[in-house]
Amino acid sequence: MDHVNPGQSVLLLWGGAVSGDMIQTTVGNLQTKVGEKGHVRVEHVDRLLLSNHGSSTFDVVLSGAINPPTTVHSGDVLAEVARLLKPSGRAVVCEPTVSTDNGGALRTAAKVGSSLKLAGLVSVSEVKEVSLSQQEQDLLKQALSADGIRVVEISASKPSYEVGSSAQLTLSFAKKKQVEKPKLDDSTAKIWSLSAVDMNDDDIDLVDPDELLDEEDLKKPDPASLKAECGTGGDTKKRKACKNCTCGLAEELDGDQTEKTSSKPATSACGNCYLGDAFRCASCPYLGMPAFKSGEKITLTDRQLKGDI
């Protein structure tokens, strides 16, 4: 009743097992609130979609205001409530809720507020719990066959404009006045300007870039001094290149390793590799090479290095 003011048009929605005396009492209280200039209409919530009320008819819509409220408002009912409200009108919904969503007919108070927003209403208020008498709680429990029911009251407003309304935008296509830039003083402009004529002037002393270099700068550096000192600390017998080495130590160590590998004398695992291709296996790595003695380094003659063609 706190949302109703004198002179307003109010729609009262009721549902469930509500006695006629309770409806008449509630309507009488509302009629006293709105006064002679206002009026009150009563509608069953299940027949709201079948009513012939026009759009933007009521200032306030009260649903579930008669205890105990047993109506669970569907999305279609809330959308119809939003249609019947005038711009900036207020809807007050009382609904039984549960603390946790268990997949039943009842939902949480947070989902009731979300349904009001989805219906197009704005300025959704905080959840307010409705106190019921012991008799009303027993009737509510009997009607819904559920435990832990909590009746909440949530209000929301319709936007201050009608659905589909339009407004003219004031657009100006006139050319804007160009702001004149402040004119610089001629003497100031001359100070910060340097023309080609000034560059050839003998009175201007320019610095010779070669004079900025000393004799030490012109000397070619020693390549050994350019190498980083990696691999010199600690054990000097075993050098190790740094990660992402750029001084050439990694290439130097790789070259030493290659020389050690190539200088290793050729050996045969099966004992026939050094006899020649006639005695070698199909996968022998020495295929095509001349015969050699066991332990001897393989060498190719100049004739073998030249092509046949």
Task: Describe this protein's structure.
Strands 2-1-3-4-6-5 form a six-stranded mixed sheet, sandwiched between helices. It is elongated and about 125 Å long. The mean pLDDT is 80. Helix content is 27%, strand content 13%. It has 309 residues and is of the alpha/beta class.
Shape: elongated
Q: How far apart lie the N and C ends?
A: 113 Å
Which residue ranges are poorly predicted, with pLDDT under 50 across at least 5 consecutive positions? none
Order of strands across the main sheet: 2-1-3-4-6-5
The SSE order reads EHEEHEHEHEHHHHHH
Average pLDDT works out at 80
- Distinct helical segment count: 10
Percent of sequence in beta strands:
5-15%
> Which structural category fits the helices and strands?
alpha/beta
List keywords for this structure.
single chain, 309 residues, alpha/beta, 6-stranded mixed β-sheet, 27% helix
